[in-house]
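Project standup — Tuesday

K.O.: blocked on the structure for the chain from last sprint. Re-posting the sequence here as requested.
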Amino acid sequence: MNKNINSVSARERILTRIRANHPASVEHPDLPVFPIKGNPVNNFKSHVNTFDGKVIDFMHREDALKWLHENIIQSDNCLVFSAIDGYEGNISLKQLPKPSDAHVLNSCVGEGILGIGETGSVLVSPETFGRMANGLFAINLYLLLDHNKIVDGLQDAYAMMDLSQVQYSSLFSGPSATADIEAVHITGAQGPVSFTVLLY
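H.V.: unblocked you, prediction finished:
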């Protein structure tokens, strides 16, 4: 019993000393926004290609939807989940009750929130894929993205993000890859094997 009293007392003594010696708060410095050379859309395309991804250009969103209908195979062996309006997959979220059930997906289609020219990244959230696991477990990932939503750099992107409105968000920059083992480059080490941005 005495031991517990002593340990509580020691804890309080430590916390009291920390509070007494806590430095005064200071204002955060203003961070400069460094200019990024080149056109953000062209930079975005270049970086996506560098990261083993692919960008396909379209004049309008309807053209991108038409491409999806004409190019993505749907069958019992090619299950496709779609979280966008205008293109319907052949499996629904109700048929994937648990996140781990998404391992059966051949393809997942979503809409990117914004793109970043500096890194070739697309901001996504669980709503982008219906559930985050759908975008992570699918073999092929297709993201529609409005070219007007591509910003120059990461600082611009963070200034536009409202992270309070989403439970989770992530930046996708192509299929995952590794060359850790004997410098052999493997694409799709975790997550999608292919990453295609339908830019309109």
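K.O.: great, moving the ticket to review. The longest strand covers residues 140-145. The CA atoms of residues 177 and 187 lie 4 Å apart.
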